[in-house]
């Protein structure tokens, strides 16, 4: 039976997570961030690559980010042990011999699509080829904006929110929602590592707040196409075109307006979550006017989501344990939860004893 | 052995509790209040009756009070499920079939004596005839004022306070206390569902702060007569008359000043309590002057009680578990605790296996 | 294996702890302080001696410090029970008989060296002769200043800090540290009830911030000699003399500058600590200039320690349990932890079954 946890203790670990925007780490700063409940210190080595180390000195646990950069190394602020970019201790004040175990954990980090990606799972399984891509982030045909939200809720409540767009009609009635969303059933299909969710609207209206920057007026055919990847990544393609011009059959007239969206969550602790997102448009890209209008609505909508999810978290935490009741719109999120659970189960197994891959049925 | 709990987990449930003042709920507002650890949403239906529903949508737990009134129904702010005044879901967006179990709990609610009363126990046992009455609230012969306190302490510490008036001499030395209170032993007798506590003072003095509005000067015969009903209701009759004019024998001269008082507590959580109270006088009722003076003293005294009880709660929470030592003045509160425990024990029994009613002995 | 606790539940009890400065308690005030997790009320009796009582009335647990002084007695603010300076109840309002058990615990207290000392262990074992002395506090040859810090960390993290001076080079690089500290191994030897730690520096430089008040310029021979007593007392002798004038061989020339330091910690709760300290100098004592300069550096350094220890505590509390790795400089603190553990083990034994005294080996 599906549970709604207010406190998530086990995280999928064999997975590349986002740790921040690549430009948050300059040549000389040091960044502390807690991910999956662990404090990590980030900085750039002289050759430009990002270093990520466990942020507790192996000696007495002092946080290294409060220490001092010395070349590519970091010196503990407490008793002065020096750690190199691989996490190996290279100097213990007052002592000549440096034992092998004098080290902190070093994490594999990669920059891709303007994001910092970190691998916190079994080191041997880290394959940068499995990083979820947001390739339009660096494509000049798309103009984008970005933002960040800190959630006082476990990441699973955000996954639930993202996988059921029926809430758009209610939570976002004045921003990005339309009455049609809740009454339109989504098509849900399994893809490698996740789900694809498609909603198509025929002869619908464009969101009120976007009419000023629209390339056309009048009824529209609209689409929302998601790719969700476990445990917490969304690539979203949305758009609208003049009704009846064939958008749903693959023909896009020049007035068609396309958007691409990136939403990624990384658990901070068992009850809090980092949420990075970008929104991009491929029309009227010469100036920021169009993306400013669109992003303003998206940002306000994401604030509305945060508000409802954080009060939901409080409601779930108070009173008796809560047992959710699923409805038709929950098809995707039930499948997503099941997929996350399968990844957790796999990680809990000793190697070589993986469970047989479950047939990924769409029926609940 | 009696315990003093700093954290009360089990509440008497088969009991009508006060949920607020009747006028807190107007024709169109929605009120959220946590009672016995459960969040409840209140509003008025078109016919004027008050609706009380469990404040967590059965779908994903979102709080309904943050949603939207639609006639006598309430729509969940998250995914738009609609609940009628009986708590039954009547609309699930995007879905035709509405399962029977799509509902939230509905509570029986009654208005009486300007208070909202709620039954959170076994529905079949709800008998409005068992509501504790404060009939003078609507009697024009009495002029009253009211107030509310939110306590960071379990309700049992407040019951202790109310059932031992010896504290008046110390906690309320400058407001409603007199030196005589602590030295006067109260007469305690069992009544249906509670205790009656009587204190009579002969040839005593009136509280200092009331002399300005007194109907007479000089020595007074005074009385404090309580009816306390488990778990947390007090009807209090106090008054004073010129000494020796027969008040204690039932003869009240016209100068006699009578007061009636209502003190009710409802547990909010295991460590916090709602406290509603009113104070009424039946003399000089043409203007508010007399009740203003009296109520000012009562309010300040109740703030003094809150202060001492909240520091008591902190003292009990810190350090080693505390084992209380009873004194003579504790007779009533020991009986009250025993009565509350009996109600809890009864509720823990399956029906038909009630414990034999304990002989309700006054001896400790 | 050594652990670093973020939450210390068991305290050494058979030990005189500091409760404050003697002048904090005047003839008529009442002081509340929590020590070893217990709230205690202090006041002076008419004859000048300090009374220390358990700060929870035995009746309902109300805090006595909020009550009223009546001669050498204290009256509970709630129901008026009166306790004398021995903690015995001498009056119960409304009741003639006062049972023997109507009392609160009374603690033995002694004033010595301008500090209040309290014994919270087995009363029969309280021997004022075991109080750690800071006799220069009242010696006119020494000029001193004092201060207090409240730590959000268990006392054991402070003991760790005090017993490894290698941190001076890093934490206090701009205040009292010199580069030489971390590279100088300390000599550690057992003494009765504790450890003696000696560091000697030859031909070193004086701390930068003290040059303005120094009695000489140029290279110095310096020393830091500690006596640490379990669980949390430090007597520290430091000083410097012109290099090569024989200070390390026991010859002090008139320009030699000597300091004495007192650092005592008393656990407040399992996660917080009281820290009192004084610093004294025996040169240029006619005015406060020299001690002002020195104490300013010491105070800033102690604030630096508090900062690093409180972030260390946070780092230890977050993430996975931390397992420390000892280095050469940890010799003293490992021995100190072992000594504290032995005291705890002894207290846990029934009398007459003390463990054989462990050979107190300096080897780790």
Draw up the topology in text.
The structure is a homotrimer of 364-residue chains.
Chain A: E1 16-21, E2 31-35, E3 38-44, E4 50-54, E5 68-70, E6 73-75, E7 82-83, E8 89-91, E9 106-112, E10 115-119, E11 143-151, H1 155-163, H2 168-171, H3 179-183, E12 187-191, E13 194-204, E14 220-229, E15 233-242, E16 257-269, E17 272-281, H4 289-317, H5 331-348
Antiparallel strand pairs in A: 1-10, 2-3, 3-4, 4-9, 5-6, 6-7, 7-8, 9-10, 11-17, 12-13, 13-14, 14-15, 15-16, 16-17
Helix pairs in contact in A: 1-5
Describe the 3D structure.
The structure is a homotrimer. Chain A has helices at about 155-165, 170, 180-185, 290-315, 330-350; strands at about 15-20, 30-35, 40-45, 50-55, 70, 75, 80-85, 90, 105-110, 115-120, 145-150, 185-190, 195-205, 220-230, 235-240, 255-270, 270-280. Chain A is α+β, with helices and mostly antiparallel strands. The first copy, chain A, has two domains: about 20-130, Rieske [2Fe-2S] iron-sulphur domain (Rieske Iron-sulfur Protein, 3-layer Sandwich); about 135-335, Naphthalene 1,2-dioxygenase Alpha Subunit, Chain A, domain 1. In chain A, helix 1 (about 155-165) runs antiparallel to helix 5. Chains A and C meet through loops of A and helix 2 and helix 4 of C.
